[in-house]
Amino acid sequence: MKYVDANTVQKRMNTRILKNNILKYLFLIATLFGLFVLAILIIQVLRDGLQWIDWNFLTGKLSNDAERAGIMGAILGTFWMMIVVAPVTLILGIGTAIYLELYAKKGVFQSFIQTNISNLAGVPSIVYGILGLTIFVRAMDLGNIVLAGGLTLSLLILPIVIVAAQEAIRSVPQHLSEASYGMGATKWQTVKNIILPAALPGILTGAILALSRAIGETAPLTVLGIPALILPFPEGIFDKFTALPMQIYYWTLDSSLVAEYVNLAAATIVVLLLLLFLLNSTAIIIRNKFQQRY
Amino acid sequence: MSVSMTEKSNINLKTTVSSKKTVHTDKDKVFHTRDLNLWYGQTHALKDINLDTYEKEVTAIIGPSGCGKSTYLKTLNRMVELVPSVKITGEINYNGRSILDKSFKVEDLRTHVGMVFQKPNPFPKSIYDNIAYGPRIHGIKSKKILDEIVEKSLRGAYIWDEVKDRLKENAYGLSGGQQQRLCIARTLAIEPDVILMDEPTSALDPKSTLRIEDLIQELKKDYSIIIVTHNMQQAARISDRTAFFLNGEVVEYDQTDDIFTNPKDNRTEDYISGRFG
Amino acid sequence: MSVSMTEKSNINLKTTVSSKKTVHTDKDKVFHTRDLNLWYGQTHALKDINLDTYEKEVTAIIGPSGCGKSTYLKTLNRMVELVPSVKITGEINYNGRSILDKSFKVEDLRTHVGMVFQKPNPFPKSIYDNIAYGPRIHGIKSKKILDEIVEKSLRGAYIWDEVKDRLKENAYGLSGGQQQRLCIARTLAIEPDVILMDEPTSALDPKSTLRIEDLIQELKKDYSIIIVTHNMQQAARISDRTAFFLNGEVVEYDQTDDIFTNPKDNRTEDYISGRFG
Amino acid sequence: GSDSENNASGNNGNSSEENNSSSNNNEEENNEEIEELEGSVVIDGSGTVFPLMSRLAEEYMLNEQEGVSVEVSRAGTSAGFEKFLQEDGTDFNDASRFIKEEEQQKADDLGIEVKELKVALDGLTFVTHPDNDWATEMTPDELKSIFLADGGIETWSDINPEWPDEKINTYGPNENHGTYEFFYESILEEQDLVDDVNLQQDYSTLVTLVSEDVNGIGFFGFGYYVNNQDKLNAVHVDFGDGPVEPSLDTIAEDGDYAGFTRPVFTYLNVNNAKEKPQVLDYAIYVMNSVNDFAGETGFAPIPEDEASKLVEELEALK
Amino acid sequence: MADNHTKPSNAVHVREMIHQKKKVKNFSQVLEKSIPVFLFLFALISILTTAGIIYTLFIETIEFFKIVPIWEFFTGTVLKPMSQNPEFGVLPLLSGTIISSVIAMLVAGPIGMMAAIYLSEYASDNVRRTLKPLLEVLAGIPTIVYGFFAFTFVTPLIRSIWPEVEATNILSPGIVMGIMIIPMIASLSEDAMTSVPNSMREGALALGATKLESTFKVVIPAALSGIIASFVLGISRAIGETMIVTIASGSSKNFTFDITQSMQTMTAYIVEVSGGEAPAGSTIYYSLYAVAMTLFVFTLLMNLLARYVSRKFREEY
Ligand SMILES: Nc1ncnc2c1ncn2[C@@H]1O[C@H](COP(=O)(O)OP(=O)(O)OP(=O)(O)O)[C@@H](O)[C@H]1O
Ligand SMILES: Nc1ncnc2c1ncn2[C@@H]1O[C@H](COP(=O)(O)OP(=O)(O)OP(=O)(O)O)[C@@H](O)[C@H]1O
Ligand SMILES: [Mg+2]
Ligand SMILES: [Mg+2]
Ligand SMILES: O=P([O-])([O-])[O-]
């Protein structure tokens, strides 16, 4: 006895297939929507900012006069901050990842740290700003200098770097470390000679992406108190500073005071996006170039 | 397998294998396992294993998937301890010393008991560095000595001629069979006494398989070899003794000929006749 | 395998299998494959396949890993098209209609040609919903009819008695063998003509394997079955015809008895005697 | 832009010339002690005064003391005082109102000596949408009643029946700002504001809000109006002698707009000035040069003699 | 085999050498023991960070509640921190935060989900490999840039369609935040769906189901926990987002639900009040910490919820 009637099945078949095809295009449109907005955003920013970018703008000092204003100070501020952030997060991030992946005993404590890290990754950046203000600016009395900003951003991206490093370490095939242990290598020898070199491209890729997150962060810096006007270029990590995103923020806010500030903000955005683009390309190149075949 | 097919395969086996089979009972024991039990957390993976292996013999371990073959093998060089939840009771003596004793340094044990894995797993380094890895971590730094070790080991694994002109190239440029021989060479470089092999040919094509099988017959002259295989014919071809594992137990352990021609246990027979999966 | 072992297994095979084997040549063709070639990107996975399968027969496909068994099977219900880079030439006729023709809707084809996979893959739903899934997408909503279909299908897969009291429970609570029979029942629910099976017992224990083998013998009365297996003994036990694949080619295709007792090609013989992997 | 170089040098030329002509007597002293200073000067406070102060800071760093870093922020007068009146507080606090008693008290408690430097005059300006062609002239009372909770005014027609019958939307700076307090204390005499007044932290936001709301009216310093004349109308206020448009002339000392005019200041932490030569130097520079930049940033200058008196007092601190 | 097989017994005696080296390996043994200790200390930093956040927020929040009763804070609808008679009701900030997050999720939820379905179920490998990273570019754009975009482009655009909308309003930053969150939802949901074993899909397709049917009846139910988790994380992100709202929504502290108006979120309040090194000791200063604490607890709960969901309701397959 047949329950499934061939005729009804046939009839329904066409509507079912049609529905499938229509929705497929709807889904595609939704996917492209984000890219469409991205395109508009970039076009908008380029239109407002591109013709304001010239040598003077890139190398000049800040100024109230839109025609004269330059962002070298902000570029240097961002640069020095990264000089702090990069080594701090790399050392702490890789160290923590190695500990969690390779040394920590699976158990309550390890999963506590792990939960803690994934929660930290979800803490709003402005809260890190308050932490930085309280600890680095106030308690350690550093003031709002590059070092304070850099340490604050380091804490902010540390969870990201840790997780990326953990993933990179985890993705080193077990059979490689087994081979090393099988030769009588100790744990640290295996970590140092086999696991870390194999994981390094993954770690670097993750770290660079995290750095580019730090470069664009504004909220924590607003809490640390970056002056609206500061002319001298920072010459080290103990100087006061401004940074690219802060400059975008102030110029956007003051755009109704001086109309051209919108253009300055847009031009700075172009520079910032370009910087991020470079960093991301580096990450991709590293990933592709050093991708291992196991 | 049905009846008449075996009459044919019979012939095959005779020509390629039987001649190499030798059985010694007077030899020295290498591993002496008594009442070995092993748990992965709650999973009782090895149950009361009693098994002796002998010097300069090939011991094969066969059994269906999940029966504990790899686990037993990895217990012999304590690689199994890399799984954190592992619990072991019982005793394993290696040349008379208890290896489960914490005073026996694993690094030490593993320089005596080398291991070759199922999937060829060279390091993502040059061929040279792959072989030199073991000697280096043990503190040998002299370029000259390393050169000698590399050549000797590669020759030992019958791969020297194929790679001698490309020692600086990445090991992943080699074919699967070459990689597996490289891994064997890498093990030879630290001059172990025993070589454990976990399905070393299961990822290889028939031709490479044959080469490795031949190599095992060669190595047997100098090393004691314990090999896990899911290929019964392979066990029949190359081993002196065969242990049949099932659900973590040793169902039968005997000279290879006996196991295959005259199994004493029904389950062994079932397995050999292909009643599993 | 060595000589004397087969004398024993011989007996086994005779009692459990040989009696069931029947060979028809006068039956209708179900699939008629001509000059089938298939590429995954650059990989030429199937080469000039010519193969006919027959109604209410069990056709077994054997061959070493990577030889194209699964690929061929998945071509028969066009599941292979899920791999985007696939290119197919040649012809496959199903009951006289060309299935590679784009006008033959895959959804349609697949309701006629059911499939059972290597690893049991029930949906993460209740047992009932697993079976009802197929009928429901075809528009059957009536609770009463669905109830009937579920019962009939589960009975057909010989699992009704084991699950009838827990139809609302999640299918993942079942054992591996039960899951596999559930998947077979799920296929029966849409009343196909053909059932394709890709190593349906390779993930199962011996007992479950036996049940599935018995079930296949039952199903053969109503369905045409094509089964891929890496277990030669299984092919010998349950199939009417056997095709031996190697490197994407059909090396030999014949009645099962002939293939195993009297292979015409050396390579078939090599394979049967275990010279691979 | 590409021609910024020309502009830049032009500006520089201009300002230094002005400096020369307006402060001849200081020139000699400056020459005597062209001492290279360094360190930083930290300024926070009024957003109203910010354009003037940041302008001065920039000029100072470019033309006077390259080694000194003057950092200017603008949290608002009241918020600025909070930062000024603490240990290691800011050096200057810009203010668009007088320091309050409580604030002075707190300074005394902390032992901070505060010096008030009047830097310019600002006219509180009421702004409307450019399309608003009715409410162009109002009396102070009318303006007040719009913002008062008890003012009885909800729609434009409540003021003048001929005006549209549309609800008036009110805007202003929030309580961080001296401008708010000046309005609340001096003009509304501390009566409650309407409930739905839209108070914002940033003046730019206010400018945008009013410039895009036909029924909006807002208030802030004259400077933010002049910079946005194209987007905003300023209400002409009739203090009794006819409507007065706020302009640099009318908001000047004793000008016609005096009713809504207020002095703006920067308050100096004298302790810091004594400790840090650059702070004092900057204070002197500010009082010497402030009148040169008042006009272009939207303020009326203070009388010359008031300025030079303050300079003298500052010199005395050396 | 063409090799000349040399027995591994002559020339170099590796075994001997290894044995000798063993004795002089004290330093490496110390290293072996001390490295884990160092690494452990590094791992502690992340715990210290959490402890630091909780401690600083907690201490000052306690101070705040000594001045402003906790009840008043959480039920007050008026927020006038700088006024002569300051009032510290957090409800205006909560309404701003919730409304902007709701708007963001209304944008990001459906669009992100549809994108996830397309990428995981329909797109070919190549298309996915191009589109997904491109989409993730959206997530990598600094929020300040989105703020600029909301303020200078989206708001004017909305106002040209809907003139009642104010120049600063919660709608525009809400939408832009949504766009920013799209890739997060798309990517995480896609991961969840991709990790549903292919055998599930094959099972459905082999029964004659269309892709749509296998997606909605098999894949999505199986991936539901991951999908829900991605939504929760999206909400958490929206709640914590700062610069977009700070720039594009102004700083009105009205307690309202009118999306055409300017509203302030908790994050924007923190920016405004701290606006440079916040003065210590005042009530306003403490209010900063009370609001931050509220924000922290909110997002912490969301993150824990996401974790819980993705763990507890993970389908067994
Ligand atoms: N790391 C592990 N954690 C928990 N259980 C494990 C682990 N490794 C193996 N097992 C379990 O121990 C049992 C024996 O596993 P083992 O790998 O030794 O089998 P095997 O005989 O080598 O199988 P195969 O032929 O598939 O390699 C199995 O039930 C397996 O599930
Ligand atoms: N999705 C795919 N993309 C590219 N190549 C594939 C794909 N699937 C299979 N192949 C290749 O096609 C060939 C045949 O594969 P197939 O899966 O059909 O082998 P099989 O006989 O089923 O092997 P097994 O016994 O391991 O299941 C192999 O070389 C395999 O690498
Ligand atoms: Mg194994
Ligand atoms: Mg297959
Ligand atoms: O910013 P204010 O001048 O109003 O304090």
Task: Outline the structure in words.
The complex is a heteropentamer, with one copy of chain A (294 residues), two copies of chain B (277 residues), one copy of chain D (318 residues) and one copy of chain E (317 residues). With 294 residues, chain A is mainly alpha-helical. Chain A has helices at 6-49, 55-59, 72-103, 108-121, 125-139, 146-170, 174-182, 187-216, 219-224, 244-253, 261-290. In chain A, helix 8 (187-216) packs antiparallel against helix 11. Chain B is an alpha/beta fold. Chain B has helices at 3-16, 69-76, 106-112, 127-137, 143-156, 160-163, 176-188, 206-219, 232-238, 256-261, 266-272, and strands at 29-40, 43-54, 58-62, 86-94, 97-98, 113-116, 194-198, 224-228, 241-246, 249-255. In chain B, helix 4 (127-137) packs across helix 5 (143-156) and helix 5 crosses helix 7. The two termini of chain B are 14 Å apart. Residues 1-24 of chain B have low confidence and may be disordered. Chain D is α/β, with parallel strands linked by helices. Helices cover 42% and strands 20% of the residues of chain D. Chain D contains 13 helices and twelve strands. In chain D, strands 1, 2, 3, 4, 6, 7, 8, 9 and 12 form a nine-stranded mixed β-sheet that branches. Chain D has a three-stranded mixed β-sheet with strand order 5-10-11. In chain D, strand 1, helix 3 (50-64) and strand 2 (68-72) form a beta-alpha-beta unit. The longest helix of chain D is centred in the N-terminal third of the chain and has 19 residues, at 4-22. In chain D, 51% of the residues are buried. With 317 residues, chain E is mainly alpha-helical. Chain E folds into two domains: 2-67; 79-312, MetI-like (MetI-like fold, Orthogonal Bundle), CATH 1.10.3720. In chain E, strands 1-2 form a two-stranded antiparallel sheet. In chain E, strand 1 (79-80) and strand 2 (87-88) form a beta hairpin. Mean pLDDT of chain E is 86; it is low at 1-10. Chains in contact: A-B, A-C, A-D, A-E, B-C, B-E, C-E, D-E. At the A-E interface, helix 1, helix 3, helix 4, helix 5 and helix 6 of A face helix 2, helix 4, helix 5, helix 6 and helix 7 of E. Chain E: It is a multi-pass membrane protein. Chain E: Pfam families: BPD_transp_1. Chain E: It comes from Ornithinibacillus halophilus. Chain E: One of its GO terms (cellular component) is plasma membrane.
CATH topology of the largest domain in chain A: MetI-like fold
Instruction: Supply the number of structural domains of chain A.
Output: 2
Per DSSP, the total helix count of chain E is 12
- Average pLDDT rating of chain A: 90
> Largest beta sheet of chain A, briefly?
none
Unreliable spans of chain A are none
Strand line-up across the major sheet of chain E: 1-2
Give the count of structural domains of chain E: 2
Shape of chain E: flat
From the helix content, strand content and strand pairing of chain A, which structural class follows? mainly alpha
Q: What is the CATH H-level superfamily of the largest domain in chain E?
A: MetI-like
The most extensive interface, with participating residues per chain, is: A-E, 89 and 85 residues
CATH superfamily membership of the largest domain in chain A: MetI-like
